[in-house]
Amino acid sequence: MEPPCSLSARFEGSFAYITTRDRLPQILTKVIDTVHRSKEKFLQEYGEVGVEAEKRALSFFSRLRNELHTNKPILPLTDNEPDTHIWNQYLLYQKTLMNEDEEPCWFSSPWLYVECYMYRRIREGFVHSPPICGFDAFNEVKNDSFFQSHSAILALCTYLQELKKGIAELSNNQQLEEFRKLLEASLWGNKCDLSISGGQDNSQKYSILNSLETFRPCILVDNIGSLWTILSRRKTLNNGGDTKTRVDIVLDNSGFELITDFALADALLSLKLATEVHFHAKCIPWYVSDVTKQDFNWTIKQLLKTNNKCMSECGANWQKYLQNESWIYHEHLFWTLPHEFCSMAVTAPDLYSELQKSQLIIFKGDLNYRKLTGDRRWNFTVPFSKALRAFHPAPLCSVRTLKADVQVGLEPGVGEKLAASDPDWMITGKYGVIQFSDST
User: What pTM was estimated for this model as a whole?
Assistant: First the structure.
């Protein structure tokens, strides 16, 4: 019943428990508002049965919000989705962490579990409300974020297309510098997280490329050199034509961040640092702005439709990469489970085996970092590889701006110095890491 990596980790760092009661009710309120405003849409698409579905969903979400507000016990899921039994087993595991006369409740359970549970309950509410089961209550804010980031997207697409025109003439050092720029753009694109802003506008309004040097001192761990070493060595092997280099990107947010991830993936192919890039996204709407298949495909279609040459060329190139399988899209229910990644080999052995085929896995964003490290209150100087607790399908890197109070792998005194000057340094997204761990 207990995830295999949890027991030993329990003595290394305590769980992070819920620290705010504001964010989750705020997101639930926005879900309720979105469903209510979509009543006419449901009527047009489904007739009166759509209106009845809207009422059932609103009733479900209102009860859920009350459970949260009043600190009720965590309830088992009652739908029949492929992951339902896994979630209910995990609830039984959470009960083993409580005293005998206690139940896991909203404010007495680990924060990571509670957050994931709320988004899974939102999914449950729609599953119980046919025919609107597939409705994405976050779709509107995700799309708005994309359009509000138009200037930044245009600047990045223009830069990428200009780079690719002269990419064959770049020296090795120039290639490294371009790789650095696009990886750092992907890092700071992670600032645009709608789950942190409660669904409020958090789009990128300006060209992020103009700010990279200004942001660079805020990168607390910079292991770009290690990534470059791995990929450039593979590139040398690939020159013979017989060796493939696979890079996996475990995605985080849609909108501008997804564009930065696409630009990085394009550069990996264009610089011949990779021969194929595999993307991993969520099966269901998650953490407001996390990428789903609909978001992934919609984003490329939006670029194809634009009247800007550089943006449309990016869209055409990215669609072609998908068609010729230079880019490959994956989704797996494990990414929307509450489990820490150290349990993947047991909980989702098929996914673990798939990741073992990679030469480098890039984990984007804060949620992935929390699941990599178990969301514990580790000492800042604990090595990243130790906090992974034997999760190592392949060499891996976390590319993340800090928006939750967990961070490892810092030099002695760095965390304490930051805390003294800025008490909120771990949660504002001001600081970032490009943090690598080799499996060997």
Answer: 0.94
